[in-house]
Amino acid sequence: MELIRSLSLPAIGTKLTAEEAMSLAISEAYQGAARVSPNPLVGAVVLDAQGGFLSAGHHEFYGGPHAEVNALKNLSPEQLKGAHAFVTLEPCAHEGKTPSCAKMMAKLPLKKVTFGLIDPNPLVAGQGAEILRQARIEAEVFSSANPVLDAKIKTELEEVCEAFLWNFRKKKVFVSLKMASSLDGQVALRSGESQWITGPESREYVHYIRACHDGILVGKGTIDFDNPSLNIRHPQITKKNKVIVVDGEAELLPNFTKLKLSEVHASEDVIWCVAEELREKVEKLRGTLVKSPDVVYVKTRVGGDLDLEDLLAQLYQKGLRSVMVEGGAFTASSFVSYHLVNRLYMFQAPIIMGSGGSRSWTESVRISAMTDKIQLKNPRYLTFGNDFMITGTL
Amino acid sequence: MELIRSLSLPAIGTKLTAEEAMSLAISEAYQGAARVSPNPLVGAVVLDAQGGFLSAGHHEFYGGPHAEVNALKNLSPEQLKGAHAFVTLEPCAHEGKTPSCAKMMAKLPLKKVTFGLIDPNPLVAGQGAEILRQARIEAEVFSSANPVLDAKIKTELEEVCEAFLWNFRKKKVFVSLKMASSLDGQVALRSGESQWITGPESREYVHYIRACHDGILVGKGTIDFDNPSLNIRHPQITKKNKVIVVDGEAELLPNFTKLKLSEVHASEDVIWCVAEELREKVEKLRGTLVKSPDVVYVKTRVGGDLDLEDLLAQLYQKGLRSVMVEGGAFTASSFVSYHLVNRLYMFQAPIIMGSGGSRSWTESVRISAMTDKIQLKNPRYLTFGNDFMITGTL
Ligand SMILES: NC(=O)c1ccc[n+]([C@@H]2O[C@H](COP(=O)([O-])OP(=O)(O)OC[C@H]3O[C@@H](n4cnc5c(N)ncnc54)[C@H](OP(=O)(O)O)[C@@H]3O)[C@@H](O)[C@H]2O)c1
Ligand SMILES: NC(=O)c1ccc[n+]([C@@H]2O[C@H](COP(=O)([O-])OP(=O)(O)OC[C@H]3O[C@@H](n4cnc5c(N)ncnc54)[C@H](OP(=O)(O)O)[C@@H]3O)[C@@H](O)[C@H]2O)c1
């Protein structure tokens, strides 16, 4: 994820190469972050017949106009004559909530449309491009002469809409894990104390990442120790989110109304995950509560832990498309052990907590040979004040 | 420490501000890295009467000419008329291995000398500046109108000669700790396997850091598991180093000749650290060995571990001024627990090893409240291939 930032667009007429135009379209796409789910982030850039910058646009919010429409809407037929549009994703062929972008573009005097990714839906993949070609507009997937550059841009193109692609391809929730640790990988003292490991700059960014997900998931321990609000507090974002609590034995449920969670969120936005075996007992309990969260009953594994795959499948059924796991130690390491994390956001503070008296976020992860190490792919580093953050896919 | 790099100097005549000149002098100083110990790294920059860049120089090797001499040597009296010299450290007042720099400069038609740090020796501090003033050359400690900038430059000025300052102020060895860990802070599997955590770019830089220290220290376990060479293998550096092995019970000493260490290093460059109590036994053993390293006998603590402070004091007596601790887990965490580390070099690879089956570099470090966390000061981040490195002082 990129930082929210006021993207500075080039001056009108500035010549851009194809790579520059596509990179700019990617940055444009991120401007819609936190507002388009479950749609993908999409960005578009238009160059004039001479390769000079004309305009840019992005998909701004769920249900709103697509990126292409926003990029093209203020341009005159004169300006569009011989123009070249760059879009991060293949223009859609079919009407959905909005009219077909390919058909809209086919009516314009464009010379060429270059798109980043082919539509991930095999049933319509290539159809947007075909509509354009029938209107005698060149339409092709981005590629430069340089395979290294192409691979880099491909990775960025996939990343910008990674949750959408994952949802589409796997019909599963996209899971991010965010952890704040010391330099030696510790996330809490044995006593439960963990505030604050990272500084205010990191914590503000965490609220941005929260906003990029439909829900925030934590284990019972974190609620118990920290009594957190788990809402989105960011100067530039107003958004409601779901909160998911993993509490296999429903231990904290009777006290739900006393938790900060229940003050801050509407009850239906809080989802309590409890063992299937406890359904009857818990339903009875809910009848006695003044206020009760939504509850999902989850299959258990040998040993009694909730089956996190089943848990995620149920969240998907409820319409959640992306979830950020925010801890604590036990919950984070369970998601890592079961290989359920798509993207890691690891914040590290320049401190040492000592592993002798504290807990790591991989306490239940065990490998027996270096060849089995879990690799973070496409790692990127950002600094926030004195902290740094590494993100990548697992 | 900065990367070894071919420093690109500005074109002659380029106007530099005082901050830019001092920053350039700092970068110049680093060009002597790995060659000046036990002297400090020092850099100098000369601007002409109009503030245009004239030349730069650094202390290149132990016993060689000082930075000021190298910066000034090729300039004509014409060029030097009204010139302004910037030096990271106060020009020396006294003759040592080389003539007094202050006296040399006093003979030149300079207008002003700005230096970064006052000579740390209170007996001669300010005397270099005084010699210059008597020759009607302005001489002052660097300071700008901006206190934030001044603090930053002061930190960099101290850092560039940190080992020297520590040696001088405390009469102690400067200790760096280098560790290579996974993102979750693990440095080796329980089985002992740890190769390779980080990639080749990181490992090459480690050889540079090795070269910036007089000795490399490891625990017995690392010798046992890895049988390492512990020499300096860097494309741009040829340097011999000392190796220090902490082996309280002299367990590996009988096999010394079979170790890679003993092939690669002259025996007198390897220092074995053994419990004082074993002196007699070990001296007898040494008599029977074809080849024996140097041995220091170290006081023990309750429990039998060597007293690392005594160990470092003995290394100081032997003339070592900086040591890099390179592991393993036990040794590293002992140095951290006893607060004996001056600078940390923490390389992290974008991998997860899982703390469930591996070892951390702070296994014996334990804090009981977040207020006791160990803070890394002035942290800086560098990336090496897919890894990153954080360095700072403890
Ligand atoms: N540094 C950070 O980023 C960060 C973030 C969040 C929290 N924390 C800290 O982490 C600590 C809490 O960690 P923690 O490990 O004790 O608690 P936790 O992970 O928040 O919660 C663990 C508990 O959640 C329940 N749970 C989790 N996964 C489950 C599953 N698959 N099936 C059934 N139940 C499941 C279990 O409850 P039962 O045992 O009742 O079954 C388990 O004991 C606190 O100190 C908190 O401050 C740190
Ligand atoms: N990732 C990295 O950066 C890195 C670097 C180096 C090594 N490693 C890995 O780390 C592992 C080795 O770690 P380790 O903890 O087993 O071994 P270690 O720290 O290299 O050596 C530990 C042993 O050294 C002796 N020792 C250390 N400090 C002592 C003291 N103060 N007094 C007396 N003896 C002292 C002790 O021997 P006695 O028990 O006989 O008294 C102790 O057991 C290996 O797997 C290696 O591959 C990783």
Automatic annotation (TrEMBL), chains A, B:
Required co-factors = Zn(2+)
- InterPro entries in the record: APOBEC/CMP_deaminase_Zn-bd, CMP_dCMP_dom, Cytidine_deaminase-like, DHFR-like_dom_sf, Eubact_RibD, RibDG_C, Riboflavin_Biosynth_HTPR
Which intervals hold domain CMP/dCMP-type deaminase?
16-140
Which SUPFAM superfamilies does UniProt cross-reference here? Answer: Cytidine deaminase-like, Dihydrofolate reductase-like
Q: Specify the pathway.
A: Cofactor biosynthesis; riboflavin biosynthesis; 5-amino-6-(D-ribitylamino)uracil from GTP: step 2/4; Cofactor biosynthesis; riboflavin biosynthesis; 5-amino-6-(D-ribitylamino)uracil from GTP: step 3/4
The family database entries (Pfam families) matched by this protein are listed as: dCMP_cyt_deam_1, RibD_C
Q: Which positions does UniProt annotate for Zn(2+) binding?
A: 66, 92, 101
Q: What is its EC number?
A: 3.5.4.26, 1.1.1.193
Q: Which GO terms describe its biological process?
A: riboflavin biosynthetic process
Per the record, the similarity remark reads: In the N-terminal section; belongs to the cytidine and deoxycytidylate deaminase family. In the C-terminal section; belongs to the HTP reductase family.
Q: Which residues cross the membrane?
A: none
Tell me which UniProt keywords the record has, alphabetically.
Hydrolase, Metal-binding, Multifunctional enzyme, NADP, Oxidoreductase, Riboflavin biosynthesis, Zinc
Q: How is the cofactor bound?
A: Binds 1 zinc ion.
Name the chemical reaction catalysed here: 2,5-diamino-6-hydroxy-4-(5-phosphoribosylamino)-pyrimidine + H2O + H(+) = 5-amino-6-(5-phospho-D-ribosylamino)uracil + NH4(+); 5-amino-6-(5-phospho-D-ribitylamino)uracil + NADP(+) = 5-amino-6-(5-phospho-D-ribosylamino)uracil + NADPH + H(+)
Q: Show the CDD domains listed in the entry.
A: Riboflavin_deaminase-reductase (cd01284)
Does rRNA-binding appear among the keywords?
no
Protein name, please? Riboflavin biosynthesis protein RibD
Q: Which organism is it from?
A: Bdellovibrio bacteriovorus (strain ATCC 15356 / DSM 50701 / NCIMB 9529 / HD100)
Metal-binding in keyword set: yes
The task this protein performs is described as: Converts 2,5-diamino-6-(ribosylamino)-4(3h)-pyrimidinone 5'-phosphate into 5-amino-6-(ribosylamino)-2,4(1h,3h)-pyrimidinedione 5'-phosphate.
Catalytic machinery residues: 68
**Where along the chain is NADP(+) bound?**
180, 196, 222, 226, 328-334
Which terms does the record give in the GO molecular function aspect?
5-amino-6-(5-phosphoribosylamino)uracil reductase activity; diaminohydroxyphosphoribosylaminopyrimidine deaminase activity; zinc ion binding
Give binding positions for substrate: 194, 210, 230, 233, 326
